[in-house]
Amino acid sequence: MTPKQIFNLQTSSNQELLEAIGVSEAELNSVVLQCYRAFASVSPLHPKGYSGTSGWADGTQAIRAILLPKSWKPTNPKGQPRVVSPGGRYAITVSSGDVNTGNPNQTPQTKNAKGAQTSKSVAFNSRQGDLFRSEASSTVELPSRDDEQMLWILLYYVDLAGEEIRYELSCPIAIGDNGKVDGWSARIIMPAIRLGTPDPFGAPDPEQNLDIPVIPKL
After folding, report:
1. d(Cα 171, Cα 210) in Å, to the nearest integer?
2. Which residue ranges are recorded for the region named Disordered (predicted)?
3. Residue 184 falls within a domain, yes or no?
4. What whole-number distance in Å separates Cα of residue 88 and Cα of residue 101?
5. Is residue 97 part of a domain?
């Protein structure tokens, strides 16, 4: 599905779109770097596939820690960890994406299938209409009053070959038969982060090239 609106975060007007939601590029940058640090810290001795789980879990902790001082609140509806804006209008959850993440010419999917809460939020989002009145405007149309928030997904992809992390804050409106989110009403695409970039909030980079012995099974 082709997204209705794609915003490349290169102009002040698009910076204002993030501000209207209540987050900043620096905050999301720090969250994604925390995802990468956790991803990169996983050793060959960890269970297979743990790098993705570790990145997602630490990214969730990071976005909550960063936004709680701004009166956002952590919630876990039906087991989905998210953080909710003051007033309860918006929610953000963290998810790894596929190789198309951060590419304005391709439509990304979440890396893994999602559950019932994401499906509920996608249905809610799809009823909200256009999120932004125009690309040049920083005004966000508010969702209707409901016990559900408009969900945004902080989607990230670690491209080891390209030595960068691509990420975007996007609003899901469709889920494929495989259970993965594959349609978006708006995508706010951030500039890619080069691996080794310092965290704007000062957290250390992961140690690189660790020489960890692999113990064979007995």
Report:
1. 37
2. 95-119
3. yes
4. 27
5. yes
